Amino acid sequence: MKKVVIGYLYSGRGLGLDEIYFRRVAKKKNVIPVLISTSNWSSEEELKEKINSCDVIYNSSGDDFVIETEKTVEELGKKMVETSKSFYYTEDKWMFFLKCKEHGVPTPKTILLSEDIAVAKKELHNFGEWPVILKRVSGTCGEYVEKAKNLKEAEKLIKKFWKRGSEKLPIIAQECILSPSYRVLVIDNKIVQTAMKKNKTWKATGIYAEHFKKFPINNELRNIIKKMMKFVDIRICGIDFLKKNGKWMALEVNAAPGFDFFGSEREILAEKLVNFLKKAAKKN
Question: pTM to 2 decimals?
Answer without folding.
Answer: 0.92
